[in-house]
Amino acid sequence: MQPMTAAVRDAPPAVAWPPVTVPGQPDRTTRQPLAELTAEPKPSAARSAAVTGPPPVTDRLTGTPGRLTAVTDREPVTAVGQPTGPVGPPAGDALSEGADLLTELRSAVARYVVMPSGEALDAVTLWVAATHLQPAWQHAPRLAVVGPAKRCGKSRLLDVLHDTVHDPFITVNSTPAAIFRSITEQPPTLLVDEADTIFGSVKVAEKNEEMRGLLNSGHQRNRPTTRVVGPEHKPTKFRTFAMAALAGIGDLPDTIMDRAVVIRMRRRAPGEKVLPFRSRRDTPQLHNLRDRLAGWLVPLTDRAASMEPVMPVEDRAADTWEPLVAVADLAGGSWPQRARQACRVLTAQEEGNDQEAALAIRILADIRAVFAACGDPALLSTEQLLAALHADSEAPWREHGSHGLTARGLQLLLKDFGIGAANRRFPDRSQRRGFARHQFADAWARYCPGWRRPQAASADPHPPAPPVPVQVSTGTGGCPATGRPASGFHPYLA
Description:
Residues 264-447 form the DUF3631 domain. This is DUF3631 domain-containing protein. InterPro entries: DUF3631. The protein has 19 helices and twelve strands. It is of the alpha/beta class and 494 residues long. The chain folds into two domains: 6-21 and 28-353, Rossmann fold (3-Layer(aba) Sandwich); 357-494, no CATH class. The strands form four sheets. It has a five-stranded parallel beta sheet with strand order 4-5-8-3-9. The longest helix has 19 residues, at 279-297. It is elongated, with a radius of gyration of 28 Å.
């Protein structure tokens, strides 16, 4: 898409969005001046100077003329055909061009799709806007639109994205070779529907490893793919950097989800209403909004490229969310706060949904609870530790694997943390395989931030145990590894 000139960008819309000609009715496609088509009162001078509102539209369900009104707390939408649910942003938007364009885009999305939360709607809005500044970003966040079943609004959301993002490229049945040959210095926005058919089963996923590799490498700039081209078999590098939205049933591969802003869609409740999406009627309206977004954002490319916004998250999550937060900072108003809130909420949700990572963190926390319940002994045997873990009826360890958590399974869960059992001599002079408390100190400090790092050796060999957020049910009130009262057992479980 070519950048709009300042004159074109700043000019107010002079025509109405074209109506659809219905067979058997008079032709109404002749464009008329906007002033002749709307009887609305003129907006205030302050708002007129700051915002160019959208052309008038006709509500398809009620038949009354109106405007595509922003969904805000100040102006609740309750008419038939408008979405219900947590889609209203907080009050206080500044009357700036960027803030109002984002609010209008937010309303356009909410008009056709019921989003799972206000934070999810904010995230989608900012992601769409960020596609118009792809040359400015170091990372190209993916938008993973997933749901547990059919009819959750995934494909409808892609319809809206197609008409609002920069240069959409539908990848239905497209080969990886065709895709990376289509990515230029001004990259398109990749849209992949029914991604579960690409990555859903092991056999199918193996056939599409090249596609997954392209999506993974394209998350960061300067990660080209190399192919042999021409009769001379000359190695040639192709760009992969491009923002992408993928929709499908169930989670996508972990490597893609980790690079994505994840939107977990759900079916509409009986009271939630949206307008049906019709390309002939709705596409011109959305294209008008898309062009105005580009007109605002494209001149800010250099400024956006130099921004390093303060992020509420770290590491890869920060890389993924940085373009969205930067767009919010460019817009101003309440958008900077809402962008960071969406980042915190959606990132925290995904940390809980990563089952493998959650299980590894859970075992560390539960082992810490066992040590704490036993008075933080220096050693615990593998047998005692497993007995204590199985004693917690609310923990997953009884059902872990076909026979519950075993010594081998415990070793595998702790392997990535550099922790393993070894033959150890206990105070009763017996030798058994077990774990030393100091083995866990570093992992507890890094992955269980609720815990305090065990104190260094002092006059008291057994300092007070840190608070225990994970309760291990023993039925005795004592050490779950031995069943003895916590105040009267031998400190080394002899």
